[in-house]
Design brief:
The longest helix has 22 residues. α4 links the parallel β6 and β7. The protein has a seven-stranded mixed sheet, with helices on both faces. By secondary structure, the chain is of the alpha/beta class.
Length: about 300
């Protein structure tokens, strides 16, 4: 049994995450694949224990199991194109209850040309405010991460939001949403249908995040129908989905074209080269030692 003095209190780490999902007929056909390939992996990664440095004379890293509270906002179009512009599910730490809520959702119609994405993001901001101001467990929470993950495939209306509840968000546009997210130090991530470039939404990756780091881009093999840009979530990429890195092949240095002309031509001494004249090979040089031997033999014969 461990003595009471040796027992260490568990480090508390709270994470708030809101999924802001477009609820249109077009998204209904794409969402099941996105849920299985990306959303479930994001939730698993958020719930993974992390190392936390403990304060004290001897700083030690302890493993902390985060308390992840998940919320969701479904947004569609305005009436009469959609029967309900926004519907929300407040934070819950029950993972099974959250997944059951998402799977049971019935997507609406509308959103053929535009959608109420601004109202959906404002509803997410109101959920963060409600937790800080009214939640009875807020004073016990040690919130270290706040995430807002937008799932969209339709451009938003240029008009300000209409369905907000808190008066502080009256006439909020996307620029106001980005400013408020920076005040709350939210990590804004974007999941967008592949092949669609929505500049108004993509700009939030730079304007809504405090961090200047580039978002994590998931490979296409991991999410075939959606471009996934993650901020503040280091989602591991399995080796089978990792894109191959191009290999650099060393290239030999190029030889100058006039290299052959730069090599000096060896010319035998005492030879003059006339133009258009063939060069005769030089006669072999006679070594002096070969001449000395016959002379020595003749002197020996006379003696």
């Amino acid at each position: 049994m461990v003595a009471p003095k040796q027992m260490r209190t568990a480090q508390r780490c709270d994470i708030l995450c809101v999924f802001v999902i477009e609820s249109t007929q077009h998204m209904q056909n794409l969402f099941p694949e996105l849920y299985d390939s990306v959303i479930t992996k994001l939730i698993t990664q958020l719930r993974t224990p992390t190392l936390v440095e403990t304060a004290g004379k001897k700083s030690q890293a302890t493993k902390a199991s985060p308390c992840v509270r998940l919320g969701v906002v479904f947004f569609g179009d305005y009436y009469p194109y959609s029967t309900q512009t926004c519907s929300t599910q407040y934070f819950t730490s029950n993972y099974r209850e959250f997944t059951k809520t998402i799977k049971a959702h019935k997507f609406c119609e509308g959103g053929q040309l535009r959608c109420a994405a601004t109202d959906g993001l404002v509803s997410a901001l109101e959920m963060f405010d409600d937790f800080a101001e009214f939640d009875p467990e807020a004073h016990l929470a040690n919130v270290q991460q706040r995430h807002a993950i937008l799932v969209s495939s339709t451009p938003p209306y240029a008009d300000p939001c209409r369905e907000n509840i808190h008066m502080r968000y009256d006439n909020f546009g996307l620029d106001d949403v980005a400013k408020r997210m920076r005040e709350l130090k939210l990590s804004f991530s974007l999941i967008q249908e592949r092949g669609k470039k929505i500049e108004e939404v993509e700009g939030l990756l730079k304007t809504a995040n405090v961090s200047t780091k580039s978002p994590l881009e998931l490979p296409q093999a991991m999410s075939p129908n959606f471009d996934v840009h993650l901020m503040g979530i280091d989602l591991p990429i399995p080796p089978e989905f990792a894109e191959p890195t191009p290999q650099t092949i060393p290239i030999a240095p190029a030889v100058p074209a006039n290299a052959a002309q730069q090599q000096p031509t060896s010319i035998q001494p005492h030879m003059s080269i006339q133009p258009n004249a063939a060069i005769q090979p030089a006669a072999p040089a006679i070594q002096p030692q070969t001449q000395a031997k016959p002379q020595q033999q003749q002197q020996q014969q006379h003696l």
